[in-house]
Automatic annotation (TrEMBL):
Residues of the HpaB/PvcC/4-BUDH N-terminal domain: 5-274
An example Gene Ontology molecular-function term: oxidoreductase activity, acting on the CH-CH group of donors
Keywords, comma-separated and alphabetical: FAD, Flavoprotein, Oxidoreductase
Protein name: 4-hydroxyphenylacetate 3-hydroxylase
Protein's organism: Metallosphaera prunae
Entry-linked SUPFAM superfamilies: Acyl-CoA dehydrogenase C-terminal domain-like, Acyl-CoA dehydrogenase NM domain-like
Domain HpaB/PvcC/4-BUDH C-terminal: 286-479
């Protein structure tokens, strides 16, 4: 089944979500709450895209794994052509989002599909038939019902100098408290659950490499409405006072609420568990057989390719409107953005072209996908810096709101003093409102943190290019030097 936006809103209204705390209150109707309303509207748009004529051919597919038509975002690519098809579908979605809203339903649909693709050669092989069946059923449920997942995988920031098992309370990180005949009882919290308050399912998949204590070695999927699942929401960045879409064009479309996910003695039924008690198997999950890292970074490349197109458009529009586009220093900066754009496009296409054919799935080239996505951890904040630099102090003095244009006396002043060579005042203010909401507002700053940290810490990720990603190939490069060293003459003995 492919849902419509209205089906998703109905599901939220019926309470198919976790308990949500916002500023000391429990949220009863999440669809009407000002902190979540815009995001729910955007998710609803995501579902509706699947029904629009210009998107249908990209976003809908007959899915042989479930025997019916589903969203392309659940589709398991079996060859290069099918991976391209999946990528083009995701690209359509992110062009619609202008590269924002990275925790739209498609993100975790790809994860759920990926686990299904490795049901046999990883989950079955390592954890046995029961876990394999769980993976298959969880995928079929998600794809058939077009469900919306959140995920949270990082332990709270209690004390990073010690592993969570050595903290005063070892159940700050989510851990198994006890086993029962029905399942596992778990307790703890996880960061950072973007979209948690309006999601219907959750994936909990911790990076257990940081702490191999077996109580943390558990991955599962769960309905968020299960007893004990709670989301403590951060402050909403939604427009305050009388302001709205004119003043906050990005926030009012793409503000993505984040929350702390708390699992308060939650029962995880056995048929929702997919990984248990074998911490050493994380390597196969993250880096080898399943290679989750390769896949989620590939998704980031697609998101961020769309975003870079949007940011390039923003920078060029500003430069051309205010007549700075002929300065060589500005051209150099616009060129820099376009270089990142080309790198994104190259990484996206090359990870497809040079992907890996496995028996059940064709996957993007992990080295290229991870490298391109990791580049973005520094490239996107740098693009924001460029936008700040070319718009300079003029990014700040923009009239407060749309009503400034409704006052005829003031409008005459605005039309005279806020116009630019290339744009009338109203257009220029619209453009600069987009600019500020991208580089300066709470939403803008949140996205910059997202671009830097949503795949983990950039220092560690860049270092991993050496320690993990190129582990098998790095000696090949050293050999190119070594061979010349071996040919060089040695001193006579
Ligand atoms: C806006 C946003 C949305 C996100 N959405 C999600 C989501 O939906 N789901 C999800 O699971 N995750 C999400 N994340 C990612 C995640 O929650 C963390 O932000 C990310 O994994 C980094 O962890 P941390 O913030 O605890 O920082 P840490 O990893 O603790 O790093 C903090 C600082 O300490 C340093 N540091 C920490 N440990 C070490 C070490 N061992 N050696 C050297 N230096 C170290 C780092 O360099 C860094 O400067 C999101 C992140 C952001 C910013």
């Amino acid at each position: 089944m492919i849902r419509k936006g209205i089906d998703f809103i109905k599901s939220m209204k019926e309470g198919h979500h976790g308990e949500i705390y916002y500023n000391g209150e429990k949220v009863s109707d999440v669809t009407e709450h000002p902190a979540f309303r815009a995001a729910i509207h955007t998710v609803s748009d995501y579902y509706d895209l699947h029904w629009k004529d210009e998107y249908k051919e990209y976003l809908r597919v007959y899915n042989p794994d479930v025997g019916e038509e589903t969203s392309i975002t659940f589709f398991r690519p079996r060859n290069k052509e099918e991976l391209r098809r999946l990528r083009m579908g995701i690209s359509k979605i992110y062009d619609f989002y202008r590269g924002f809203f990275g925790r739209s339903p498609d993100y975790l649909n790809v994860w759920t599909m990926l686990f299904y693709a490795h049901a046999d050669d990883y989950f079955g092989k390592v954890f046995g038939n029961k876990m394999m069946e769980n993976v298959i059923e969880i995928y079929r449920e998600a794809a058939k019902q077009d469900l919306f997942y959140t995920h949270a995988i990082v332990a709270p920031m209690y004390d990073r100098s010690r592993p969570p098992s050595q903290w005063e309370d070892p159940y700050i990180q989510v851990g198994v408290v006890r086993e029962t005949t029905e399942g596992l009882v778990v307790r703890g919290a996880a960061l950072l659950s973007t979209a948690g308050p309006y999601s219907e399912r959750l994936w909990y998949l911790p990076n257990i490499k940081r702490d191999t204590d077996p109580r943390y070695s558990v991955f599962f999927s769960l309905p968020t409405e299960s007893k004990g699942v709670k989301f403590i929401s951060r402050r909403g960045f939604h427009p305050k006072e009388e302001f709205g879409e004119f003043e906050y064009p990005i926030t009012s479309r793409y503000e993505e609420p984040d929350a702390i996910m708390v699992l308060d003695n939650v029962l995880i039924p056995w048929d929702r568990v997919i990984f248990y008690k074998k911490p050493e198997e994380i390597e196969g999950f993250m880096w080898h057989t399943v290679n989750l890292r390769g896949w989620f970074n590939w998704h980031f490349v697609i998101q961020h390719y769309s975003r870079t197109k949007f940011l390039a458009g923003l920078a060029i529009a500003i430069a051309e409107a205010v007549g700075i586009n002929n300065f060589i220093n500005v051209q150099e900066k616009l060129g820099e953005i376009l270089i990142y754009l080309a790198m994104y496009e190259a990484g996206m296409v090359a990870s497809e072209e040079l992907g890996e054919q496995l028996p059940g799935v064709y996957r993007p080239n992990p080295q290229i996908a991870i490298a391109t996505s990791s580049m973005g951890m520094k490239a996107l904040p740098r693009i924001n810096e460029i936008l700040r630099s070319i718009s300079a102090g003029s990014s700040i003095p923009v009239p407060a709101g749309i009503r400034d244009f409704e006052n005829p006396e003031e409008r005459a002043l605005l039309d005279k003093y806020l116009a630019s060579k290339g744009l009338p005042a109203l257009e220029r203010v619209k453009l600069f409102n987009i600019l500020w909401d991208t580089i300066g507002s709470e939403t803008g700053m949140r996205y910059e943190q997202y671009d830097r940290f949503s795949r983990g810490d950039p220092t560690i990720r860049w270092a991993q290019m050496y320690t993990e990603v190129y582990k098998d190939r790095k000696q090949e490069f050293v050999k190119m030097v070594r061979d010349i060293m071996d040919q060089m003459p040695n001193p006579k003995a």
